[in-house]
What does this fold into?
Amino acid sequence: MVYAAILGFGTVGSGVYEILRKNPSSIGKKAGDTIDVKYILDIRDFPDHPEAHLFTKNYDDILNDEEVSIVVEVMGGLKPAYEFTKAALLAGKSVVTSNKELVATHGTELIAIAKENKTNYFFEASVGGGIPIIRPLNQCLAANEISHLHGILNGTTNYILTKMFQEGSSFEDALKEAQDLGYAERNPEADVEGHDACRKTAILASLATGKFVDYNDIPTEGITKITQTDVIMAEKIGYVIKLIGSAEIDADGKVNAIVAPRLVSKTSLLSDVDGVFNAIMVRGDSLGDVMFYGRGAGKLPTASAVVADVIDAAKHFHINKWVIWGEAESGLMNDPETASYRYFVRTKDASLAEKFPGAEEIGGADGEFVFVTAPMQEKDFKAQVGDNAYIRILP
Amino acid sequence: MVYAAILGFGTVGSGVYEILRKNPSSIGKKAGDTIDVKYILDIRDFPDHPEAHLFTKNYDDILNDEEVSIVVEVMGGLKPAYEFTKAALLAGKSVVTSNKELVATHGTELIAIAKENKTNYFFEASVGGGIPIIRPLNQCLAANEISHLHGILNGTTNYILTKMFQEGSSFEDALKEAQDLGYAERNPEADVEGHDACRKTAILASLATGKFVDYNDIPTEGITKITQTDVIMAEKIGYVIKLIGSAEIDADGKVNAIVAPRLVSKTSLLSDVDGVFNAIMVRGDSLGDVMFYGRGAGKLPTASAVVADVIDAAKHFHINKWVIWGEAESGLMNDPETASYRYFVRTKDASLAEKFPGAEEIGGADGEFVFVTAPMQEKDFKAQVGDNAYIRILP
It folds into this structure.
């Protein structure tokens, strides 16, 4: 028998409990041993829960119980998740998490502690919800040097952008609908401003390079300024708009990472990823392009990724499976101002395009003109574009 | 140092050699030890190869060399691959393969032998070329009961069907072009008749159920009878045609598996998988739909999947990582004649549709009429359809 404790009985935590209770024999077969939940930690009371005896408010109950070998941290946030995780790893317990904030902030230290203590820190569910991406990047693509990855990593913003394209909704109306359906929070800033996608991009970039990429070093723009003119003109030239987290690794191993709305050609499979779905396109030197697609959020999809990690933790008790990435390396990140893009520009200034050699005018709507530039460096572009709206084009 | 031997220096074998020689340090880091190629077995001579001393024609050189812990079997076919694999596993060596024929035929026995001898038989490259699918099905989706999987598993046929849709080519012209480009063999039967996809479907179905599914039990139809009328009429109702290998697992754990051309709705992401690309859509009870997409064939994509397995084998020396599936179980497969589909029927008989209650006429071309039936069992459908052409519709 392998005993697990669940920290946080919110959406994901209750999903993990549900899956472990629903498929115990098939999970036990895959894990090589039966997995049982011994504790659930939550500050709230659940007196009517059928297994109310499992609940505790005292983390020491879990930490000091030598029978508990797996701690499932699905509380979210940094405090107290960080100290709880660290203490569990130092005690030789495996920790499984969906907490992207914690992984993106303290992952390097926690991965190193896991190694030193011959245990594991697994976080498949921190990126892409239920989509298998962490393990494939680590294992299946191990024979490849990854040259870039482009991900639709946030379901809320993808839902909003899909509505804007398919139904002509405004950003505000699409956001309101997403909120009404429970796809967006009442305070949607973390999603619509790209912060959520930024944490996930940092995790993927760290995996792809094997070195810690700090999310603070990734320029991040949200989708709040996208208008119907953008949508109409993008469609006209065969593109959709997606919030893309990208990391490109050049021949010297240096990284360009950015989270921003991008024009994505309709010839790319990424353009067909609609609604709350997520997808990550990865290019490897041997493999070419692979894409992973699925539900990037939600109770059971995310919980199923957590439980897959629990199974793997049970199979690797006291064996550190992998060191996913090491310390940050100075000079790893290229200066974002030197990154080069083609830009889609929307402006009221009929003569703006003239400032951009090679720019191609593509029309206009609602008193605005739209043009597309030739590839140029960010700093040169910004020196000319002023306050006009623009969207970078995904190559 | 971990020593590997490559059996078969054809397309995939030379790709494996190339990748291992190209990225030794990053591969070594991921494997935890340097991986070196000690032998290459081939019946041909390669006197001009820069490492001509590696070549041998005598398998005993490899089998009896205790330093060789990993055997890469990329010869294809059953003979002598089966006996070479068995001997290597019995000697405690790990075997990594891309040989779908062998896995689909003798996989159950070889998996069991690997377990008994505390070693591993890995075959990520046997399905989907470079696409990670075997490991995700085993690990990442371990917390899910899989209810179905639908795969575009053969690049040659997908290339042909894409040409027929995008350029209005006939089957014969598209096949010829695929042959000229090297995407199809001079004798294309294994691809166009669905045999290749059938082996891969059997492997995936075995993985999804945990029990051996014999490819001989999977009804298999190819794409040679698809005409431009099919293409035009499918487009008219919002579908494309893809060769799909599918396995559906019902609530009792029984399996319906079939390989056949299917009408795939343009609202499905599978419909956007074009050219030589492959994709596998999998539905899990917790996860919902996930899709894996990439190059299903080719030297380096396939070799990169092989090398990922080599790395995993190096990390699990003398530890059996998993028993992927067990023995066949009688009664596992549902009778294919009781499977239910909607059918797309093309006929010269203007009154045929009347024999199918609920059938919907959708028009015609070139003196043929096309209609779509309501869902009905295969045996009832076949009793009425006679010699007329039909295509099953993917739900």
Remarks:
- DSSP finds 13 helices and 16 strands in chain B.
- Chain B has three domains: 2-129+299-315, 143-294, 337-393.
- The longest helix of chain B spans residues 100-116.
- Chain B touches chain A through 49 residues (CB under 8 Å).
